[in-house]
């Protein structure tokens, strides 16, 4: 009985429990249906994050006429590009040791970031240059750590570029909204352009140590200032499996060496060129394979497949350089111990050996009595050339020891001179040792590394170039480089001698220049030097081209890009001149020095600049930025003795703002626009400055020990995507003079890597600072050279 009562009671409880469960299930189902309906109605197709990725900027250089400096994302609308976009370098996977602290959760974006604070001039402290010391630890303050050998490509980056589709997005929406809402436009701009350092302590919150501190140092506030946020397309909310796997491998690899110091083993180069080694010009293995040298192919660039990592030895008895302007007249013989040119050209006053010096009494075959007289003779022959006003940037072909360009500084003119590394031993090396701009190059089978329509004047004084042969191909290359309305100054024996060979050349040149629509504006003789010159003017429009009876030389195809100049073969054709009044080349630049600060007329507000602003604003913001940096930090705050600085190179120039900010210094700046960067080199020339294209994965076309200061702004972090940094630093060591300076602004992990390499080279670390993943490094090269030499003669030379 008792069992029976208990059974009925359990049955009732079971039935009641079943009803309650059924009710609960129904309620849950109704809630789920309601939530789904609300979610469906709230979503719209436009709100779904796009998985599209942007193409890798390093794959090509954009040189379109509508936007000559825009990156490869041509289809990105201006409205979709914010001033606060993450830069290309910030989107790429980080390859440093600091990655070991990251998790593998790639789908969750970190949006809560610390809003960078704006610095104040009144709160910064003066730099104490006397307290600069070299820290034994790395940039993160690590003192100890196991030492490992540097091996191959493991720590130096990849030989090929990363696919942009695998870039990791690091946007900061909450920070952007806050900063935009709390500041006026002027305040935002000021906060972006003016970089400050908070130096209340020698060690910041991240444990990074500053080797130097003070109120003169200008430094980015926050992970990356707006100015450095180069325009890029976002990747959407999701990463890809390829990138996640690749990043994890890199994190694991970096974790294995966390806290360790990489030891670099340096050796001297074992090459025939010895102390004058230029890897891309002394590659004998490649030169021996050439089928012909008829067009000076053996003087062109032939870079080794693997860039060298050895160090170039110093000449015996190398001495500290003579300062400018005395260096224009004499240099130390031991620094450039070559006498062949003095023996061959001494009677023409090129160069002479005088005790422990090499002296330059005249400077050239055409101006035995001094370059200044010759320069003034040109001005008297053609007053419209207006040195230092209308004519500011010129190209000197076959420059010899570059005395012409050296004395043009007295007329406020910049001349970039070039000559081949040939039997005229070390002529370009003499020029650079004297403090005169020059590169090793030849007019052979390829275009020179300059954009079109940029030189105000092209000059040739006995430059030994056969302009009239093969359809005038070489003269047509000068036509590409010369501004519409610019002048070609030709001083050679055919102009003023009547020998049969000279007369024949003059006749051929006269026919060629006429067919090119060049007008000969003057032809005069200099009685003092007993030489003569002819000056031709390039047309400013296409009227003459259209009236020619014969299409010879022919006009280039419309598809031919005259600005494409990196390893592009020469063509015997002429490019049509621009006709749109808003196009570059239709209007002569402002007179110097107004053109330095003037925004080029062909930069339109509808174009997006490198940093994401409308192009004219971008240009001005860049200039103000570098005036702040140079004035407050580089000139007054880093302990650099600028009286010892003459030859300067900006290894990654954008608008030439760094060079423009140094205008009042007694220096000249070679502006390098990397071949994988936006093509802004025409803008630099429009300002009355000069530069050239280059790929820093290869050696530069200059002699060793030719620059006093190298400046690299966010260069090395970009290079790591394409090539190893070790050969690049070896190239920096080759180009930089003993006691020369290297200034690097880059990501903190890259700064740490460069600092370690500099220490291994026995360079002095004069300043190293990092904050918010941004770093600043200033190092000075020493006289140190390794004792060991590479085993076996290198096949490169």
UniProtKB/TrEMBL annotation:
<comment type="similarity">
    <text>Belongs to the methyltransferase superfamily.</text>
</comment>
<dbReference type="GO" id="GO:0016020">
    <property type="term" value="C:membrane"/>
</dbReference>
<feature type="compositionally biased region" description="Basic and acidic residues">
    <location>
        <begin position="96"/>
        <end position="121"/>
    </location>
</feature>
<protein>
    <submittedName>
        <fullName>(NAC) domain-containing protein</fullName>
    </submittedName>
</protein>
<dbReference type="GO" id="GO:0005802">
    <property type="term" value="C:trans-Golgi network"/>
</dbReference>
<dbReference type="InterPro" id="IPR004159">
    <property type="entry name" value="Put_SAM_MeTrfase"/>
</dbReference>
<keyword id="KW-0472">Membrane</keyword>
<feature type="compositionally biased region" description="Basic and acidic residues">
    <location>
        <begin position="169"/>
        <end position="199"/>
    </location>
</feature>
<keyword id="KW-0325">Glycoprotein</keyword>
<feature type="compositionally biased region" description="Low complexity">
    <location>
        <begin position="126"/>
        <end position="136"/>
    </location>
</feature>
<feature type="compositionally biased region" description="Polar residues">
    <location>
        <begin position="222"/>
        <end position="244"/>
    </location>
</feature>
<dbReference type="InterPro" id="IPR029063">
    <property type="entry name" value="SAM-dependent_MTases_sf"/>
</dbReference>
<dbReference type="GO" id="GO:0005768">
    <property type="term" value="C:endosome"/>
</dbReference>
<feature type="region of interest" description="Disordered">
    <location>
        <begin position="44"/>
        <end position="257"/>
    </location>
</feature>
<keyword id="KW-0808">Transferase</keyword>
<keyword id="KW-0735">Signal-anchor</keyword>
<keyword id="KW-0812">Transmembrane</keyword>
<keyword id="KW-1133">Transmembrane helix</keyword>
<dbReference type="GO" id="GO:0008168">
    <property type="term" value="F:methyltransferase activity"/>
</dbReference>
<dbReference type="GO" id="GO:0032259">
    <property type="term" value="P:methylation"/>
</dbReference>
<keyword id="KW-0489">Methyltransferase</keyword>
<dbReference type="Pfam" id="PF03141">
    <property type="entry name" value="Methyltransf_29"/>
</dbReference>
<feature type="compositionally biased region" description="Basic and acidic residues">
    <location>
        <begin position="206"/>
        <end position="215"/>
    </location>
</feature>
